[in-house]
Amino acid sequence: MIKIDKKEDGFYQFILKSDNGNTLLKSVSFNTENEIDSTLKDIKLLKNTNGKLFERKTNTDGKFLVELKNSKGKIIGSSGLYSSEAGMENGILNISNSLDIGVK
Prior knowledge:
Elements: E1 2-6, E2 12-17, E3 23-27, H1 33-48, E4 54-58, E5 64-69, E6 75-79, H2 85-98
Antiparallel strand pairs: 1-2, 2-3, 3-6, 4-5, 5-6
């Protein structure tokens, strides 16, 4: 599920959630909901062409995370931390699947 929130600072953010309500990824801030809509369309098109959406990373504590990129390579969202590489790969699968679900 994709949830769009208006933050206290007036900017917008989308949050990808799993079926059980866990947060999978939080986006960067956007000025308008239209920017989010355009970005989500761009991501879905990139996903359908097998483009590079995800960048896998490890932080200084050895935890794993994923960054979501748009078609221009700009980071537009980051996952939470995973304790294992397998957990991160499962997270990528869940994020990818949630990109096909409608916005609420």
